[in-house]
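> call design_seq(struct)
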């Protein structure tokens, strides 16, 4: 992996991203050493660091985030979500090709459903992007949701940090099928693409799921099929009825399998990026993203501490009193939280 020289500050556009490595964290190797190797261009550091944040415990996640955060923030993060079958992986593949043609390095995080047997990713997206498998300027990694709602794996934000620190110019995050709870990608990405296709009833689903609010660009893929113009028209009507916004969300028609409309899609993404930078929204989005991450970490720690209390007698006693009508649920929760605060005191 060719990375920027030490102390250069900015990643070099088009620097090849090495994809070699076993993907397993090296036992006993501290994360700061892995980060140093990542920045120095080590071939296996990307895979090992992503495995570290995906499979590690809380302390390992903490170490990785603390070490990576100072050297990130340069990559453009693009989220891609949509219902199963609309061609998200094909869209991802043509976007990778378009950015590579510009001389940019690309990291792809394909968040797959978990295997019910191993808990690992089913690797469907990675299989469908084999055209880029030998490109040293592309890194493709499948991640399992492992039951985490929102369309993203728990470790996805840290994996984005790894690819950012590795010098990727663009990080593309493709999520599992979209639904009412699966809009987390909007909180992670600078630009969120919502893919639809004719024949899926997607325009109605968009209105139901509240996805209208998270899309920065709508992509009507498989536009050579009957009904594509109808989907695009319905989207434009819904956008017109929505709240006024400085950014007018475009609706781009594509046939990803043939590459039709890809230039317009890349242009729409670039225009949104320019809008974010000129309006100050990019900084505000990243600040909100950081705030959500801090809040989620704090809540996860609190849940863990409550879980430890819950495995003892305290929760059983409180539950018994609530069930018997001797204590209200809010008062019981206050007492349980007081136990956490008491431990900290």
């Amino acid at each position: 992996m060719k990375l920027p020289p030490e102390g250069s500050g900015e990643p070099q556009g088009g620097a090849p991203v090495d994809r070699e490595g076993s993907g397993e964290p090296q036992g006993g190797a501290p994360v700061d050493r892995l980060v140093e190797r990542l920045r120095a261009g080590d071939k296996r550091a990307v895979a090992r660091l992503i495995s570290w944040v995906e499979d590690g415990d809380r302390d390992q996640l903490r170490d990785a985030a603390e070490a990576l955060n100072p050297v990130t923030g340069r990559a453009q993060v693009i989220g891609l979500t949509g219902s199963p079958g609309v061609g998200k992986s094909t869209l991802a593949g043509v976007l990778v090709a378009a950015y590579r043609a510009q001389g940019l390095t690309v990291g792809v995080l394909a968040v797959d459903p978990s295997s019910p047997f191993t808990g690992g990713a089913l690797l469907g997206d990675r299989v469908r992007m084999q055209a880029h498998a030998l490109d040293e300027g592309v890194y493709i990694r499948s991640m399992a949701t492992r039951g985490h709602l929102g369309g993203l794996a728990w470790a996805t934000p840290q994996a984005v940090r790894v690819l950012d620190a590795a010098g990727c110019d663009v990080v593309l995050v493709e999520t599992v099928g979209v639904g009412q709870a699966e809009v987390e990608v909007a909180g992670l990405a600078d630009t969120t693409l919502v893919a639809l296709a004719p024949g899926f009833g997607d325009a109605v689903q968009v209105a139901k799921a509240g996805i209208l609010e998270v899309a920065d660009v709508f992509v009507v893929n498989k536009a050579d099929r009957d009904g594509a113009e109808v989907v695009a028209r319905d989207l434009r009507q819904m956008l017109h009825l929505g709240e006024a916004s400085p950014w007018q969300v475009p609706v781009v028609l594509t046939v990803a399998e043939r590459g039709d409309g890809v230039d317009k899609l890349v242009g729409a993404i670039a225009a949104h990026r320019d809008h974010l930078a000129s309006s100050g929204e990019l900084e505000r989005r990243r600040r909100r993203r950081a705030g959500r991450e801090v809040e989620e970490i704090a809540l996860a720690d609190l849940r863990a501490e409550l879980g430890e209390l819950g495995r003892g007698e305290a929760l059983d006693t409180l539950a018994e009193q609530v069930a018997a009508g001797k204590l209200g649920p809010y008062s019981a929760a206050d007492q349980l939280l007081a136990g956490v605060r008491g431990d900290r005191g």
